[in-house]
Amino acid sequence: MGRSIVDFFNENMQHAIPLIATACTMIAIVFFLSLTFFGAGYQNEERLNQVRILCVDLDNDTIGHMFMELCATLALDLGDTKPLLVRGIYEDFDAVVSGVNHGHSFATVVVKEGASARLRTEIERRFFPQEGVEYPEYKSTDAVVMLYDEGRCQQLINPYLRPTIYHLGMGFPFVISLQVLGGLFATDLADWNAIELAPHAPFIFSAVSYTETNLHPVHIVGTLALIIGPINMVVFAFMWLMAAHEFFQPILQYLDAVWRKCAFLILIGHVITFFISLAYSGSVAVYTGVKHEVFINFWMLNWLQMNIYYGAMVIAFPFLQQKLGLVFVMFLILNITASIFHLDVEQRFYRWGYAAPFWHVDGMNRHLLFGSWNRTYLHIPVLVGQLIFSNWIAIPAMVLFHKHVMVPHGFGIVYRDAEGVRHEAK
Fold first, then answer.
1. How many domains are contained in the chain?
2. What is the rounded distance in angstroms from the CA atom of residue 218 to the CA atom of residue 226?
3. Which of 4, 37, 143, 360 could staple 115 via S-S, CB 3.0–4.6 A?
4. 359-397 pLDDT tens trace
């Protein structure tokens, strides 16, 4: 007599419960990882007051004073959730450029030296020319320069900061025309008619304009390398660990102690990752994504980060076995979350991103690929420290933990020899 469906489920329920528990666990992990990832970019525009734009007056005359007044007015209009417009003090224009290159601000708007004097000379040439005087060529765009470093963080510069400095740059010519030239029309030019003023109309409405200078523009290959590079390094580190564990199984079985297995895999990994990182770095160089002057630095950065990921996975693999894949995915998504946006304008919850390898690698990559300022003094020591910890400190610590805690309580790592006999690792 055939069994009913109820009997079938009752007999197999003990197998179904672990499957259901695993599915529920994966659903919860996917939900919270996705929630964390998308939350990193949520309402960042409300925390832009953590970012500042410098307003610099090198003119110290009429145009410069009006410009600083406009910056102060605009700062009040923008409110507390927009980029801060802050007065910057520099000796000359080269110092302003150096300030942006050294991270003093994400963007700086500067009135250049002699802007007011050049405008007065041009007004004299057009409306009150003197015989025998040779006047220099006037360019309205020489008055104001907007400097920014796109390579430092294009996700922050392009959608948020550039509109702010454009708003400032578009309003300033109107203020100058209204206050400077408007006074002339009311006094010295009061007798001029429309026909006489018509040839000067372009100058009247744009006596002062601005020039936009992107000190470190991004390029498509470099942008792709920022995203794909760290992912490539961690994925291929994981793939090599899986391959090494499979191909070197006879050697790993002979090395019955946990520390010997880990040391062997680390040693082999250092050699292989050296060439894998070279292959990736070379592919970026083929498309001129990285300059040849810094190619070795770029290659060593990729090798460094690959060994960090590889060492961490070597430590975890003997204890997690098949579960390492799940931990690997979580590690990857959390690191991408830490590096894809800008931590300065994210919620405080994301401050853990400062410890993520991807965040430090992203900063170094921006410096090497675009020449942008980043915290090199911080990134390199942290990455080297993570390498030392994951390769040479954590392994002895985990071996001691296994030997003195797990084995005495019956939770030691178990492996099978060539004949399939189970042994507990030492």
1. 2
2. 11
3. 143
4. 999 999 999 999 998 888 899 999 999 999 887 777 777
Q: What is the pLDDT at residue 244?
A: 84
Cα dist from 70 to 145, 165, 182, 345, whole Å: 15, 12, 17, 25
What is the rounded end-to-end Cα distance, in angstroms, of the chain? 53
| Same-domain check for residues 270 and 172 | no
Q: What are 240-254's pLDDT values in tens digits? A: 888 887 888 777 777
Do 71 and 206 share a structural domain?
yes
Residue 48 confidence class, pLDDT cut points 50, 70, 90 = confident
Answer yes or no: is 169 within a domain: yes
Question: Final residue of a domain: which of 214, 239, 267?
Answer: 214
- How far out from the chain centre does Cα 327 lie? 24
Provide the b/e sequence for 323-362 (b: ≥16 CB within 10 Å).
ebeeebeebbbbbbbbbbbbbebbeeebeebeebbbbbbb
Per the confidence metrics, is the pTM higher than 0.90?
Answer: no
Name residues whose C-beta falls within 8 Å of residue 367's C-beta, 6 or more positions apart in sequence.
Answer: 373, 374, 376
Other Cβ atoms less than 10 A from the Cβ of 37: the count is 15
The domain in which residue 249 lies consists of 219-424
